[in-house]
Design brief:
By secondary structure, the chain is α+β, with helices and mostly antiparallel strands. It has two domains: 82 residues, Arc Repressor Mutant, subunit A; 48 residues, Ferric-uptake regulator, C-terminal dimerisarion domain (Dna Ligase, domain 1). The chain is built from five helices and six strands, in the order ααβααββββαβ. β2 and β3 form a beta hairpin. The longest helix is centred in the middle third of the chain and has 13 residues. The radius of gyration is 17 Å and the shape is globular. One of its GO terms (molecular function) is transcription cis-regulatory region binding. Belongs to the Fur family. InterPro entries: FUR, Fur_C, WH-like_DNA-bd_sf, WH_DNA-bd_sf.
């Protein structure tokens, strides 16, 4: 999987720098599904103390632009990122601790069908985030 991501970087004309490797590894080895730029920065700094937050942020945006990452805008106003390697999914987000869980279930086909019947609008894409409380925070 890591090699596939590196191949995509090269194919898009980008060098595989140590910082980019460290960012990709931060996602691959994280227990969390979603990471903020600050969390990626803290993880990368463990092995590369000299890396600036702005460097991490620029690389996250580049990885987003070429399709390696997805951005998830949570209610707290802080952008989170995830690797774009999983099948279509949505997120269950805890309002207390902020943990996000992936769920493969998607109710949107039926909703999109109803939207097309009720309006002249044609849905193309969607993101669904469901907020509530996880087992730990109930």
């Amino acid at each position: 999987m890591k090699d596939d991501l590196y191949t995509l970087l090269k194919k898009k004309g980008y060098k595989i720098t140590n910082q980019r490797k460290a960012i990709i590894n931060a996602f691959l080895h994280s227990e969390k599904h979603l990471l903020t730029a600050a969390e990626v920065h803290n993880t990368v700094k463990i092995n590369n103390e000299d890396v600036n937050f702005s460097t991490i942020y620029r690389n996250l945006e580049m990885l987003l632009e070429i399709g390696i990452l997805n951005r998830v805008n949570l209610d707290n106003g802080i952008n989170s990122y995830e690797l774009n390697i999983d099948s279509h999914h949505h997120h269950l987000i805890c309002l207390k601790c902020g943990e996000a869980e992936m769920i493969a279930y998607c109710p949107m086909e039926e909703i999109n069908s109803n939207i097309r019947k009720l309006s002249k609008f044609t849905p193309i894409d969607h993101k669904l985030e469901i907020y509530g409380h996880c087992d730990k925070c109930k």
